[in-house]
Specification:
This protein is α+β, with helices and mostly antiparallel strands. Helix content is about 45%, strand content about 15%. A hairpin with a 4-residue loop joins strand 2 and strand 3. The radius of gyration is 29 Å and the shape is flat.
């Protein structure tokens, strides 16, 4: 072999080994929700609502509701009650975000007013 061929060959082997080690390992072919509940959940008892789209590890859409008491329930994504719950939850979350932005804006205004009023006034000298 030529002098330049050995480092080249070692470089290719090195890159191949790195590529093999970096390949992702597939998760087990399981869904988080084995069964779904048909019962209605009240919006007041809901802490969080997550929706997972179909993926290689699970072929179906999954909706997991976390209740305020810490329990989790899998909901049927085809149910009309669940679809309504998702819409109401989305509206509630967006309203909370708007309220938080409004409160932050009001606080910043109050801080500016306080800072202005605490400054000592300088007398004009002419």
């Amino acid at each position: 072999m030529e002098k330049g061929g050995a480092p080249f060959l070692l470089g290719i082997i090195f890159l191949t080994l790195i590529g093999v080690q970096g390949s992702p390992i597939m998760r087990s072919q399981r869904c988080s929700c084995i069964t779904t509940n048909e019962g209605a959940i009240h919006l007041k008892s809901l802490k969080d609502l997550k929706q997972f789209a179909p993926s290689p590890s699970c072929e179906k859409t999954e909706i997991i509701a976390t209740l305020k008491n810490g329990n989790q329930r899998c909901l049927n994504p085809d149910s009309t009650d669940v679809k309504e719950l998702i819409q109401k939850w989305g509206k509630q979350v967006s309203q909370k975000k708007k309220q938080k932005k409004g409160i932050k804006h009001q606080k910043s205004r109050n801080v500016l007013k306080v800072k202005r009023s605490q400054r000592p006034r300088q007398k004009k000298t002419t």
